Amino acid sequence: MSQSPSRVLDVGNCNPDHHKIRMMLERHFDVSIDRVMFVDEALDRMRRTRYDLVLVNRLIFEDQSEGIDLLRRVKGDASVLKAPIMLVSNYAEAQAAATAEGATPGFGKDKLFSDETIKRLRQFLKPRERQGAVPM
């Protein structure tokens, strides 16, 4: 009997970065990935769908708003189905600010394929069965 995949919401990443994130996630985890470009869209999705993990870009690609705003707005919205939120940023100060707002420690795009990032994601996502692994 097959379990359903882990649900991930990708918020605010440009097309190339979204592609790399998707490729890494699908290579290592049994995941279903939704994508939105704005914080309001993310909140709407999080009201209707239970996610195992939300990945938010430091700066939302479409409007350059702060991804950390999602964390602040989730805290004050009882209608949102809570999920761990990770900031995607190379900047240590942005990661520190996000964790101070309640994010789980995230990762930078420069460490996207690192063992440390995979281990961090493994806390929330189901591993891909080896025989069905996506080839590199």
What can you tell me about this protein's structure?
This protein is an alpha/beta fold. It has one domain (6-122): Response regulator (Rossmann fold, 3-Layer(aba) Sandwich), CATH 3.40.50.2300. The chain is 36% helix and 18% strand. Strands 2-1-3-4-5 form a five-stranded parallel sheet, with helices on both faces. β1, α1 (15-28) and β2 (31-36) form a beta-alpha-beta unit. α2 packs across α3 (68-75). It starts with 5 loop residues before the first strand and ends in a 14-residue tail after the last helix.
Topology:
Blueprint: E1 6-11, H1 15-28, E2 31-36, H2 39-48, E3 53-57, H3 68-75, E4 85-88, H4 92-100, E5 104-107, H5 115-122
How many strand segments? 5
CATH class label: Alpha Beta
CATH names the topology as: Rossmann fold
What fraction of residues sit in β-strands?
15-25%
Structural class: alpha/beta
> Rg from C-alpha positions?
14 Å
Number of spatially distinct domains: 1
**Topology order in helix (H) and strand (E) letters:** EHEHEHEHEH
Mean pLDDT across every amino acid position = 93
CATH-level-2 architecture: 3-Layer(aba) Sandwich
Strand order of the largest sheet: 2-1-3-4-5
Termini separation: 27 Å
Task: Give the helix proportion (percent range).
Answer: 25-40%
Give the overall silhouette: globular
Number of helices: 5
Low-confidence stretches: none
For CATH, the homologous superfamily is named as Response regulator
Q: What composes the largest sheet?
A: 5 strands, parallel
